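To close the section, here is one more complete example, presented without commentary so you can practise reading it yourself. The ligand is flavin mononucleotide.
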Amino acid sequence: KIMAGEELVSPWHWWRSLGSPRYVSAPMVNNSELAFRLLVRRHGVQLTYTPMIPAKKFISMGAKDRLALIEPHEDDRPLIVQFCSDEPDELLEAGRLARDHCDAIDLNLGCPQSQAARDHYGAVLMEEPELVSRMVRRASQGLRVPVTCKIRVFDNLERTVAFAKMLQASGCSMLTVHGRTRGCTHHEGSCNWDYIREVKEAVDIPVIANGGMIRSLRDVRRCLEHTGADAVMSAIGLLLDPRLFGGQESGQSSDPPDPQPLPDPIELALEYLELAKTIPSTPGKSMREHVQALLRFELCPSYYHRGGKTDRHKDLWNLVCCNRVTTAHQCIQIVEVLAWREKHRLAPYEPPPTLKQIKYAPRIGASTAGPQVQAAASEASDSARRSLDSEDEGSWELAASIFDNLE
Ligand SMILES: Cc1cc2nc3c(=O)[nH]c(=O)nc-3n(C[C@H](O)[C@H](O)[C@H](O)COP(=O)(O)O)c2cc1C
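Output:
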């Protein structure tokens, strides 16, 4: 039983009070910041998570810095704040400081990275069920918002189910099961939907299924049918296509995975960046990473094998990977350069006219560029061609010259 105001409510009652969400955006360090959460909500997501926040760090911060990590927003509810911790009182205290800004507190028991194991948080804690039980019990008894957990599966089904039941008995109100084991780092490796189904059947709290190359609405439906879960959570699928949950069923199979280019990635990137522009707390790194993911086919078809020889617009790719690019405005300008090149069919590596010239030229979408701009473009591309003896150096040189023009 959990408390809501003065009432005792069951996990199911709470879940229904959230509108029984089915489409969930995952907690993602550097990537589930408010701007991205608002973007995916526009396209079908019904429940969002903050990136994982270390509870110890959160407690030690001032109130303003704490809010900057959660980025609460009236249009971003229901929202779950995720913490990592290995200490019951610490989790409780972090939960107290966050509870007024969210609908639940989540404990990360799924992070498989070596740093997590070293620092004793995430998936390594699944080896210590008694400690986890104490943490969940303490937090769920002491907080007026529900406590939820995100776990991985064990190799062994009985162990997985026993762990899930232990969480429920300790006061966990909802469980996300990532169907990969702790050994699968980097979010890859086979995902066991059968184990998720077994967990769902064994517990009586809402279960969210996660993992398994979900790249289309068809995959979402398959996952819900296979696991019987109450909802599906996506991380990489949403990074690659923020409209994953809002789109039409394509009928395509994503088995084997064959990610398709988005129909209008530039518009989508600009939609995200316009949102980010209105939210000053959006980290530059998050913006660059979203632009990299959304424009991967335009900027770098060898996205999955960085450094490949076939990269187009490598100068722009270099820019969106460069930590000197820090503002939404700069990112928008880079995307506009790309849009210009695509529109005017400039060959890869050919620089566009300066941003100022682009700004005063007919907008993207207009059919022809003015003669002055065309002249500037051809002049610029001649000089670029001369400097392109070495592909990499040339692309960096172009990146630098574009950077110098960013406002
Ligand atoms: C960039 C990135 C950051 C992530 N950060 C977190 C995190 O902060 N907390 C967490 O529980 N999982 C995190 N994950 C794991 C995802 O939430 C998810 O469990 C995993 O990617 C599998 O889902 P997917 O197959 O839909 O990508 C992260 C994944 C990615 C790709």
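Once you have examined the tokens, check your reading against these statements. The CA atoms of residues 346 and 352 lie 8 Å apart. Residues 26-29, 31, 51-52, 82, 108, 110-111, 150, 178, 187, 210-211, 214, 234-237 surround flavin mononucleotide (CB under 6 Å).
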